[in-house]
Specification:
The structure is a homodimer. By secondary structure, chain A is mainly α. Chain A is built from six helices and three strands, in the order ααβααββαα.
């Protein structure tokens, strides 16, 4: 198994060389803020225009959403189709490669369902501590 | 299934309210930069001092690593133990809750092994495009 993030040209990879962590590159690719949310929405609701996607992701700014979509397009997880109409129309769609993530997302959803309450409890206890 | 990130007090949750994405909160908790790497290392190499952990994560600054460890401690995924010795010694260890992530991490590693080459190819093609 290769664990490096070689091939990234635009931004230096944080997990280069003799990185012992085999999920570093994948988690960088997938789990920057909003990224999983965008993929989840496109996979479950199909092809979508920018404005509709934005409406489904509360709190994201247009600038950030555009940057995330561009990153996903570069990673081969989303396609961007420009329709030459008047006015022009641009649609985003999850790729077959993105669909290979379904079991990963499903497992993460399952983990959340089982353990997120424990995370929340830990946070409350941490915030209530005197010594923090 | 509840998908909100309620309970976060220190920072406003990005996925509040009627969020349709059930993995948003989990991916926020787990996959900020370096986080999965820290957990992976602590789970595979056991309890560790700050300096040793830092040596195993190339590229991370002490400030960022300290912040990530604090976040993981708050989330109940890492414990921090202070030994009153001379000089004092602080050790970090993955919790039982962190160990519930093992199948998630394993699936992510498997996904990387199978599909990361396709991501890299997509990146090269994107970077070579004229219209980007």
């Amino acid at each position: 198994m290769t664990a490096t993030a070689a091939g990234k040209r635009a931004e230096p990879a944080p997990h280069e060389g003799d990185d012992p962590c085999p999920i570093g590159a994948a988690s960088e690719a997938l789990f920057s803020r909003w990224t999983s949310h965008v993929l989840w929405t496109l996979q479950h609701e199909g092809r979508m225009r920018f404005g509709d996607l934005r409406a489904r992701i509360p709190g994201v700014t247009p600038k950030v959403l555009a940057a995330r979509l561009r990153k996903l397009e570069r990673d081969g997880l989303v396609t961007r189709t420009y329709h030459r109409e008047m006015p022009p129309r641009v649609e985003y769609e999850a790729t077959d490669l993105a669909r290979t993530l379904t079991p990963v997302f499903r497992m993460l959803a399952q983990w959340s369902e089982r353990h997120l309450d424990a995370v929340r409890t830990a946070r409350s206890e941490f915030d209530a501590r005197d010594d923090r």
